[in-house]
Amino acid sequence: MEIVFLGTGGGRINLIKQVRGTGGFRINSHSANIQVDPGPGALVASVKYKQDPLKLDCVIVTHNHVDHVSDIEAMIEGMTGYALKKRGVLIGSRKTIENGISEWHKSKAGVVYTAEFREKKKFESEKGSFEIEIIEMKHDEETAFGFKLKIDGMVIGHISDTDYMESLGEDFAGCDCLIVNCIKPESDKYLGHLKTDEVIKIVKKAKPKTCIITHLGMKMMRVGPNSQAQKIEKETGVRTVAAKDGMRFTI
Length: 251
Known about the structure:
By secondary structure, this protein is α/β, with parallel strands linked by helices. It is built from ten helices and 15 strands. The protein starts with a strand and ends with a strand.
């Protein structure tokens, strides 16, 4: 199984400046190929890094913010064979499904699922099956979610944009790989995103086999994402990697 990072930048300034890309990430496995949060540049990055949108089986959008959803319709058209086939699974937050995608594009997906907190849902693809558990995030898009994905005997967790919550460590226990949006090295006046010390608290409880930090903001890039990954690893004992655009991580 492979995770390919199509864009590892986060935050409003990076969104416009594109110091790091904002295309989200893709999970390639035997049972399904899954695109997560196709923000600005996801389609172009897919072509650049040889991640064929025509071979997608599922697209997941964790919340209806532009840096996570802007390329969703292009990726749906890829997943559905230039919109000529009704196929694939579309999973999104309630606000994404209701307001972020055209009715025409939704009609092309084989299955459209509106994520419900605490629900576990199993899906079939043309190649196999996978199960997703929806986990509530605390964000200004109130239907935002993270998830634990069970596929091909592995558990991949993703903590999307959220304020820190004590429950996150327990919620994300048991992951082979935990991908965390860690936008800042330390707290500031802006809420809604995790900082390094908060990720440490989560990882200490969750104890994944590997932690990957992504969705990195400008302050994080100035201090150096690798230094923050090393800090998390030192404090938790969990192997931690700072994602880079185009990085391919094999589980």
